[in-house]
């Protein structure tokens, strides 16, 4: 697990997005700044290959080339908040989606929909999942990727907030998974919400409020 350096700047960004009175515009803007830091760090965990180029003065620069067959997979809906920054960083990147909902009776994650790039088994995957509380949804997403031929070692989980319980569970049940997060929370409350927390990330990022559906 890689934790972003807890700089004063990062703490200031977290102070804005954790504030319950932050406007939707503030939340989205400052969240995107943190997301960019997470993605840059996640990209650094990917494999690189040696590559030489000729500079404008005719000299050879011995550098590195980015990993090939890279794709992103977002856990709908909060994970979609990370897609824009990833597309800006890697133009043309393929992005898959996995929709997971917690069953009201069993409390277990239920995979409702998945759409993955056809060549996903041949490359590296950035799994976009901002919230890691109990770890159930993340493990369900890893299982979906595994069935598609992606090994844990080829997955980097890009995560905004993580609980100690969720990290411990992933370490036990998906030991090959690499994780990048910007903060490790104090823990979970009785409702399994992270504390001090940030609220519903998807609703706050996209400016929506859940509404009851009439039966």
UniProtKB/TrEMBL annotation:
Family annotation (CDD domains): PRTases_typeI
Gene for this chain: upp
Source organism: Streptacidiphilus alkalitolerans
SUPFAM superfamilies per record: PRTase-like
One Gene Ontology MF term: uracil phosphoribosyltransferase activity
Protein name: Uracil phosphoribosyltransferase
EC primary class: transferase
Domain Phosphoribosyltransferase: 5-208
EC number: 2.4.2.9
InterPro entries: PRTase-like, PRTase_dom
Key words of the record: Glycosyltransferase, Transferase
